[in-house]
Structure formats: C-alpha cells, structure tokens
Write a structure and sequence with these properties.
Helices cover about 10% and strands about 55% of the residues.
C-alpha cells in the first residue's frame, strides 16, 4: 500500500511537470513550480522543567516545507495564480500545522500589474506579512521570536477562509488587507480582519499593521480554527487560548548601510479573556545583521517584553545571536544562541518553540543545523 501511494505521488508530480512543459496544454503562458525547504538541527536547552535537554529539531531557521506555485497569463497584465504549501516535521515525517496537508498556505486568485492581487484561501494576515519580515526571527531561528509568540508573527496560527488584497506599489507604498470569514450563520463569531502598509525606498524598509480576531478558536471551521491557536501558553495563570478577542498591532523598519542592516520593531497584543482582566503585551526589539563576507552572516537582537493583566505586571528580557554560513545559494549551516530572563512576577522563562518552560526565571537554548532550499 505504501509503495502504491508513493508511486501515485510520483506519477502526479510527473504529470504536473509534463503539463507545465507542453505548449498545447499550457498555452506556453502557464507554469507550475515545485519548491521547498528541508531544515534540521540539534537543539540544547539548559532547563526544561528542571532538566537539560538535547533534541533533534525540524524547521529551526525556516519551517520545513514543500509547495506548488502556479500561474497562468490571461493577457492584458492579468494572471491566475495558486499556491499549495505543505509543512512537515523532518525528524518524524509527520504533517505540521495540526496535520493539515497544506497547512502553511492554500489559496487561488488573480493578480494584475495595474490593480494588484486578490486571493482566497488559507493565508497569512497583514501583521504576519509585514511585521514578520521586520522581526529578527526572519534572519535567526524561530526561537528568537517574542515570548509565547504573543503577536503571532512567528505564525502560531494562520487565517482560514481568507480573502486577501495586496495593492500594486505606488511611490514605494503598498497596502495589504485581509478578511477571514467565520463560515457560520453567526457572521461576527470567529472572524478576523487585518490591514497594513509598507514603504520601501532604497535601503529603507518600513511597515505598520493591525489585526483583530473575534472569538478565535471557538469553532473548527472559522477564521482561526480551534485546533490552530495557542495551546498551553498562559500568563499569570490565564491561558492565552481562552481569549474571546485578540488584537495585534505594530510598526517598525530596517535600514541597510553597506554590509550592515539595522532594525527596530514595536508590537503590541491584547487578549480579552472571559474570566479575568485583559492580558496586554508590549514587545520592543532592536537588531543588527552584518554580512562579514557574502557567505558569512552574523546577527544580534535584544527584545524587551512588558506584560500586564489588571494590577499584575512583569517582563521578559531576551538576547538572541547567531551566525549563518552559506555553502551555496541553496544550502547553509547555522548556529544560534538565545538567553531569556523573566521577572519574578512571571515566574518561569520559556523561549518560543522550546518544548517546555524552565523551572526558574532564566532559560538558555542553542541550536546548530543545516538548511537546504530547493
């Protein structure tokens, strides 16, 4: 049975490639690309619930994935396009994103040189598209993301049933709008919307965005599905996954100066929970990336996160650093080290994506690995 399934997949991919290559079938204006990333490494943590840990880990710098990206030229600057992107754990072979076949992205739509792009399906919202590209975790490992990924720009969840519009670029400005349908008769329950704006001018890249999720995870079919939200993460004893509304906002930018790139980013998030006061996060990040040579990249970031819930307050300080060596345009080796210190009022440090929290207010993690893009 397993050999038959494997054979069927090979035949399907061969058929896709042949279809894209045949002038008659594709009208010489269509393309389908198979692409992906395989990322694997070893992660050390000094304290996971009082014990050291050595783990084989997948998707440290980039989530391991494979995908199909296609387009068809319809003439007059108009194109049809689609993307189907699967996420997987390279250490076990299992599906990621809650076991979804195309859990990272699945959409279809139209793009126009003059009017922009409109797509429908499972997609990233505006804060992920814009603020995620300004966060240091886009250069370093995902372990360098903000505590508990409270702003979701390390992609804890994605948006189902989404209609997304991305405008053309005018004088360096580009708009991004996303609406996620609840897919129920209660239109306002488990829906979401987001909006953002980017500005690019030579070495300068700026962005700002806002997102709102109403009754997230209240159903399996809504914009934020119940199996695709925060799990055991909590703050001051209140689970983040119990939120009846979440809001995310932020702004930041990067500036390139010779071989160096400097970044500043602020994000905020608010979780309205039914049994207590709202939980409010403020994340402040500064970073620098330096190309020692075209094949050796160094990066350093400092993040301060302030958390409040009613009269309760606390904070995290996190330092992340790393190096990347490019063996080729598609293959690189990396090493990253993260140190997080939580205030005594929070009680436990927990670096994002590490399997378990520390038993103390500090935690150290280090990862080495290899990433190959195809």
């Amino acid at each position: 049975m397993e050999r038959q399934v494997s054979k069927n997949w090979r035949m399907a991919l061969l058929s896709i490639g042949m279809t894209a290559a045949l002038p008659g079938a594709a009208n010489a204006q269509s393309s389908v690309t198979l692409y992906g990333i395989a990322d694997s490494g070893v992660t050390y943590t000094n304290n996971q619930q009082g014990h050291t840990a050595w783990e084989a880990t997948s998707g440290n710098e980039s989530g391991s994935r494979w995908g199909l990206l296609g387009s068809e030229d319809l003439g007059g600057g108009l194109k049809a396009q689609f993307r189907l992107e699967n996420g997987f754990d390279i250490e076990s072979g299992r599906l990621a994103q809650g076991g979804r076949l195309f859990g990272r992205s699945a959409y279809v739509g139209l793009s126009s040189d003059r009017f922009g792009t409109l797509t429908f399906g499972r997609q990233y919202n505006s804060t992920q598209d814009i603020l995620g590209n300004l966060q240091i975790s886009s250069v370093l490992t995902g372990y360098s993301a903000h505590p508990h990924d409270n702003d979701n720009i390390n992609n804890t969840f994605r948006t189902n049933n989404a209609a997304k519009y991305v405008s053309p670029t005018f004088a360096g400005l580009q708009a991004n709008l996303v609406y996620g349908f609840s897919n129920s008769t209660n239109f306002s329950s488990n829906n979401s919307w987001s909006a953002g704006l980017t500005y690019t001018n030579g070495p300068l890249n700026l962005g700002a965005a806002y997102a709102r999720m109403n009754d997230p995870a209240s159903s399996a079919v809504g914009a934020v599905a119940s199996d695709n939200y925060y799990g055991s993460e909590s703050m001051f004893g209140t689970p983040l996954g119990s939120a009846t509304r979440q809001q995310i906002w932020g702004a930041g930018g990067t500036y390139s100066f010779g071989p160096a790139q400097f970044g500043l980013l602020y994000t905020g998030s608010r979780f309205d929970v039914p049994t207590a006061s709202s939980i409010h996060f403020d994340n402040y990040e500064g970073s620098v990336t330096y190309y020692v040579t075209p094949t050796l990249v160094l990066a350093l970031a400092q993040v301060y996160t302030h958390v409040t819930q009613g009269s309760l307050s606390g904070h995290f300080n996190q330092t992340s650093t790393g190096a990347k060596y490019l063996l080729s345009k598609r293959t690189d080796l990396y090493v990253n080290v993260m140190y997080q210190k939580a205030s005594s009022s929070i009680g436990q440090a927990w670096i994002e994506s590490i399997s378990a929290p520390s038993s103390t207010t500090s935690q150290v993690a280090a990862v080495v690995g290899i990433r190959h893009k195809f």
